[in-house]
Amino acid sequence: MGAPSSPRVAIVTGAAGGIGAATAQRLAADGFAVAVLDLEEAAAAGTREAIEAAGGTALAVGADVSDAAQVQAAVDRIAAELGPPVVLVNNAGVTRDNLLFRMTDDDWDVVVRVHLRGSFLMTRAAQKHMIDARWGRIVNLSSTSALGNRGQANYSTAKAGLQGFTKTLAVELGKFGVTANAIAPGFIVTEMTRATAARLGRDWAEYEAERAAAIPVNRAGRPEDIAHTVSFLVSEGAGFVSGQVIYVAGGPRT
Ligand code: NAP
How confident is the model at residue 73 (pLDDT cuts 50, 70, 90)? Predict the structure, then answer.
């Protein structure tokens, strides 16, 4: 009998809270060793502790995904301390919503930088390990906002861009056993959507109920809804699903 093989290593960016934390916990429950990456290592520690308390393996890593040197250092550290990463979930994100005429250069640059440059840098650094392993899974977080959303010229552009990025990764990396897919969530209850309600001056409970009423399944989404879809896309059996955008929105385009 051989030694038990070590678990595959997954990186989830922006995993201190919200969708990223739920995804990191789900992948750990699925048997992955998970690098919980967020801007500050201390912020990622809560997710790491939750994974360890449930019997999983995790490493908290601090890095700004839009900074090339920090990204390379983080991926090198993950490879050294957990093992070579073969799953990458590009989830880190920010919003700087404003109607176009009020949107500043900085609003545009920050959002495009974190989502697009961040996903590019993380993927470029991690893909080497997937190519070496001849196996890999990349999941990028897009959004229903990619279809257009008032006040989100910057964000919808970035989220649509991630769909093109995903399809190109699928084309380039498929022959190495690496799939790339995007998930486009609809309205999911996290700090991001709570902050949107606050910015609009809306009471959270009222805002959530109004949004939920417009969703065909008649409820708001939860981070676990997205984690479940990530779990499928990174699974062994999903190896023939690549270059796709899966809308997880409680309906076709909410
Ligand atoms: P969230 O709760 O705000 O989590 C995003 C995380 O990313 C935060 O912990 C944030 O840290 C981190 N982050 C921001 N900039 C970063 C950077 N440069 N480097 C590393 N980490 C960074 O948001 P969420 O709602 O879970 O969203 C997760 C993803 O799903 C995002 O890509 C978002 O655009 C997408 N999405 C969300 C929804 C929704 O309804 N919630 C819908 C569609 C798509 P800080 O807190 O320190 O900024």
Answer: very high
52 in a domain, yes or no? yes
Ligand 1 binding pocket includes 208 (Cβ within 6 Å):
no
Tally of domains in the chain: 1
Query: 151-182, pLDDT tens digit by residue?
Result: 999 999 999 999 999 999 999 999 999 999 99
CA nearest ligand 1 atom 31, residue: 93
pLDDT of 52-69, one tens digit each? 999 999 999 999 999 999
CATH of the domain at 13: 3.40.50.720
pLDDT for position 254: 64
Ligand 1 probe mutation, 94, 95, 162, 204, most atoms within 8 A of CB: 94
Residue 198 lies in a domain: no
Q: What is the mean pLDDT of residues 133-149?
A: 98
**Structural domain includes residue 199:** no
Q: How far apart are CA 44 and CA 29, in angstroms?
A: 17
Q: Indicate the pTM of the whole model.
A: 0.98
CA distances 13 to 104, 145, 171, 203, 207, Å, are 26, 20, 23, 29, 28
Residue 38 near ligand 1, beta carbon < 6 Å: yes
Q: Is residue 60 part of a domain?
A: yes
Domain that holds residue 91: 9-186+221-247
Separation CA 128–CA 119 (nearest Å): 15
Q: How far apart (Å, rounded) are the C-alpha atoms in residues 167 and 243?
A: 4
